[in-house]
Amino acid sequence: MTAPALMRAGFTPATVDDKARTVELVASTGAGVPRHDMRGTFLEVLEVSEGAVDLTRLEGLPLLDSHRQDGLDNVLGVVRAVRFEPGRLIVKVQFSTRRDDVWQDVRAGIIRNVSVGYLPKTWRDGKDPNSGARVRTVTQWELREVSLVAVGADPAAQIRGTTMPPETHTPDAPPANTAPAATPPAPTETRAAANQEIRALANTFDLGSDWANAQIDRGASETEARAAALDSLRTQRAVAPTARTSAMHHHDDPATIATRMGEAVYATRVNPAHELSDQARAFAGMTTLDMARDCLQRSGVSTTGLNPADTITRALHTTSDFATIFADTANRTLRAAYASAPGTLKRLARQTTHKDFRAKTKVQAADIAKLEKVNEHGEYKHSGFVEAKETYAIGTYGTIVGLTRQALVNDDLGAFTDLAGKLGTASSEFEAQFLVDLLTKGGGGGIGPVMDDGKPVFHADHGNLAAAGGALSKDALSAARLAMRRQKGINGRPIAIAPKFLVVPPELETTAEEILAAIQPTKTADVNVFGGKLELVVEPRLTDVKRWYIAADPATVEGLEYAYLMGSEGPQTDSRAGFEVDGVEVKVRLDYGASFLDWRGWYMNEGQ
């Protein structure tokens, strides 16, 4: 690999508009840029045409300083227009008045190199007919940003000037029928190539120009520079971990790559019906060994000479991204299973979040005001409020599953993904049983947890417990509905609650269906007054085969409520290289809690 043949310096930009602070840039000519993947180095070439470049993000597309996205100070301006010339992408950019120093250097021709940040979508792989080197031609790509850089990967990507030649200056390739020269490259060319690779490492891993200059000054080889980059990254991680969010080619976050690999594993090993994203499709054919090599190489670690077991071991203990792959797969598997088995009583409850694990008090307030006649002196009487409160907290529940080193080496993920799916189902089952346990908890002369007034949810004093158990029937349902309609708020006034759900165990399902069935009667006595009025909810976790309930819509009245930790709705996963398990450990965690906030929206009959 030789250093790029840069355009000559000292020209004066001819497209500068001082008043509008705009200038035209040759953003890309598609020139080949060295890239790395699990198979080694290849040359990536961009196809530059209107059909190849996705300009969906054109409006507001940023002009950045050296692809940096870690702050607004790095935004130099904005792209105003894009056009195509044969083999060239031309952009018109407008500079911010905040960065007049950069604008003046552009006007003077001092800053002139341009680079683009892009997301490859489709490509084709081939080989150079002369050298046999791998060449990847990106046929569809999305333009994400344009940057001014010190050294550009594309030698013809520059600020347009009066003396700019129309063609790209690259060394002529030898004819196809001519054998390449056997003479090794000159030392200056080899050094230039190494320097370019060092600066690429500094740019990719945000190590800065000082780091790159230090490596160049000491004459580091590409291999030595990669090792030094890895050491620097380890030091940075220990001192101050940073999370990079860029998904573009210039700053691909290793965690993002790991997530794409995790999606590929999920689609190929767990759920073939899953539609892979464009970004994950490139990893669909990888084995666990391929992914381990890729993670190591992206971290600057050579895998030459490593056997499969050593490669897996080094990936586990050198980079956290390898474990992240399987955590993502486990999370997708767990989430899919969790979503496919929702708890029955969740339909009858209200969902919320808690910002922490401290007990949360829910206060209900109601006014006790009423309008009274104002006396002849114009005196108005004051009204007040009454309130009731219920308190509960969420707790943390979870377990750890392991993916052994042996399974990774054998590329056998079946048992691991099966267990992840079962944990998703178990998480849903845990939530459902938690709500049922609240509903059926006994003691204190009634049923359900004890409320703030010292009485259980279902209690005679609450007017929501049948005085005597009765079999499920039209008359019993009518009495239940009347009791709910007669409920009064904490201010003593009627609140007109209407039941929406009938909750029964499986043993009463047929009886309930008969009562709720909408039929066409032949005489008035056969009219089904409850037809279409209530939704039937059959809860198989209810163990009392005679007891039944009615419940109001949770959107209209507070009753049963369940909560997750804010930002952690449903089961969550974390991963690490194992200590107790020689492999990958994935922790499944659920931050969850539930409680009754009010009894007025529920009614229970013990049945008979």
Automatic annotation (TrEMBL):
This is Mu-like prophage major head subunit gpT family protein. Residues 91-160 form the Prohead serine protease domain. InterPro entries: Peptidase_S78_dom. GO terms for biological process: proteolysis. Keywords: Hydrolase, Protease, Viral release from host cell. Residues 160-188 are annotated as: Disordered. It comes from the Bacteria. It comes from Stappia taiwanensis. GO terms for molecular function: peptidase activity.
